[in-house]
């Protein structure tokens, strides 16, 4: 093994370790799924997580509906007009907030279709 091969091997190991440390780990007992839109790849280990990650995939396939001003405005209006949805929406994570709301609403849309707010149905049909 020459010097350049050794450097390449060390670099590959470093990148692999960083990737392992920075990405959700399916074996950590907390994370049940993840979607890597750059790779167009998702994994999940529970039915709930599989539907949630499918929601992220649908969101991406449709050009990130969750990031559109129309969707975000609908969420803000829902929050301001419904006390029951207000606390649910306030519980959404700050990171990728609207993407996570979209995926969670997709779960509701599929599992309890009568529960999803009528003004959001069009984003999931
Ligand atoms: Zn998510």
Any overview of this molecule?
The chain is mostly helical. The chain has one domain. It has five helices and two strands, in the order H-E-E-H-H-H-H. Strands 1-2 form a two-stranded antiparallel ribbon. Strand 1 and strand 2 form a beta hairpin. Helix 2 crosses helix 5 and helix 3 packs across helix 4. The model has no long low-confidence stretch (mean pLDDT 89).
What fraction of residues sit in β-strands? 5-15%
**Helical residue percent band:** 55-70%
Strand order of the largest sheet: 1-2
Number of domains: 1
Listing every helix as H and every strand as E from the N terminus to the C terminus, the arrangement reads HEEHHHH
Structural class by SSE content: mainly alpha
Based on CA atoms alone, the radius of gyration comes out at 19 Å
Q: What gap, in angstroms, lies between the N and C termini?
A: 57 Å
Which kinds of small molecule does this entry bind, naming each only once? zinc ion
